[in-house]
Amino acid sequence: MQVTETNAENLKREFTVVVPANDIDAKIDSRLVELSSQVKLPGFRPGKIPMKMMKQRFGKSVMGEVLEALVNETSQEVISERSLRPAMQPKIEVTSFDDGKDLEYSIAFEIIPDINPMDFAKLNLEKLSVDVPAEEVDESLGRIAENHKTTQPLKRKRKAKEGDVVTIDFKGTVDGEALPGMAGDDFKLELGSGQFIPGFEDQVVGANIDDDVTVNVTFPEGYGNEKLSGQDAVFEVKVKDIEETVPAEIDDALAEKLGEENLEKLKERVAEQVKAEYDRIAHSHLKREVLDQLADNHDFDVPEAMVESEFDGIWKQIEADKEQGKLDEEDAAKSDDELKAEYQDIAVRRVRLGLLLSEVGGKNEIDVTQEELNAALLQEARNYPGQEQAVFEFYQKNPQAIANLRAPVFEDKVVDFIVDLAKVTEKSISPDDLRKQIEAENEAVSKKKPAKKAATKKTPAKKPAKKATAKKADA
């Protein structure tokens, strides 16, 4: 094999590789001999088929197989013998080959640059610690009690209001025609819950027991039932009963219902959960600070192909946001050329930080354990209540999805490793001050030069709250 380096500019590497015809013929003959003991031809015993006949029958297919194997084998030799680390899959192009002649091909790729991480002991970081006030724990307990509310008969007769649970019979029609799923008896509907399509519940508010209400609504475009999608409908509703909702009592009984021994234990658990949420926000602040300082202290060339791939992903999201009207005012006011220049710098920053963190992780044998990956997968599945099994199956069938799940876990572990080596000053801060600081940082990020803009995603500065879901009914 003859190898000639044709380009060694910056991170680019290109080689011309020539594999002698004799080597190719020897590989083909060897493979044909191997096949002769496996194939069956009329009149010949396995292993006794003449080589001339084997070449006539199988020569072309074997040649293709051998050439592919030779290109893979020799290209790997080119890379490994020179201790090169390709940034992405090499591009290989066969430039010359004919039966009985040498094989010539080119191989081109960019290499991972030499990266010399700074002395992380020189980093000066501020770690925020939040003291959770008792009133926030009480607020969380109040939300829990609201989520476990019960209903009771009205103490005095009155009209239905939002939050009440009404028992109704309903029958709906579209252009006078009753369609499946548009009728129900003794249905309990919480007004304001969003169980039914927009406008339905609002028109029941204000009704008394035994009232007959005519509800006029329009089914949303894209509704699950194609016959109803975008259609005007009329529902005749009979209000049979009205119950008011009351939050659960915050007491030992509620604590036991939630798996705790008593109310005191429940308060402790809620306090830990609130504290954990604030700690997560504070950790995001710390991570942003780490990445900003790493970006300021490292400047090395990055592979153009990696930057291009990163930019393509960013730009697709920008175009999608533009179509949906989700671009922020600052970006919406810019031309495509301005945005591309800005986000090109962001792509460079992301690639550089990614390579740096990968280098640090590799040198210090930091890896994601199966247990940590399983925990990340479980957390992802929890984001899709009722679809957990489908989420698990999706990740089992998609190795790239697993890699995408692994990446942020690895990144967090490397950042934590760096934090352990840095000079860290702890600062106690109130929840309000934390929110104000995060909001100020988010605003500053949007005004900084592009190279700073991609430190991390903006950190939510909202007060932690329980998630709530509501499902739609047929009506």
What count of helical segments does DSSP give?
Answer: 14
Low-confidence stretches: 448-475
Any idea of the CATH topology of the largest domain? Answer: Trigger factor, domain 2
Total number of distinct structural domains: 3
Please summarize the sheet with the most strands: 5 strands, antiparallel
In short:
This protein folds into three domains: 2-110, Alpha-Beta Plaits, CATH 3.30.70.1050; 120-134 and 262-453, Trigger factor, domain 2 (Orthogonal Bundle), CATH 1.10.3120.10; 150-246, Roll (Chitinase A, domain 3). Helices cover 48% and strands 18% of the residues.
3D architecture notes:
The protein is an alpha+beta fold and 475 residues long. It folds into three domains: 2-110, Trigger factor ribosome-binding domain (Alpha-Beta Plaits, 2-Layer Sandwich), CATH 3.30.70; 120-134 and 262-453, Trigger factor, C-terminal domain (Trigger factor, domain 2, Orthogonal Bundle); 150-246, Roll (Chitinase A, domain 3). Helix content is 48%, strand content 18%. It contains 14 helices and eleven strands. The strands form three sheets. Strands 6, 7, 8, 9 and 10 form a five-stranded antiparallel sheet that branches. Strands 1-2-4-3 form a four-stranded antiparallel sheet. It has a two-stranded parallel sheet with strand order 5-11. α1 (21-36) crosses α2 (51-81), α3 packs across α6 and α10 (370-382) packs across α12 (399-421). It is extended, with a radius of gyration of 33 Å. Mean pLDDT is 87; it is low at 448-475.
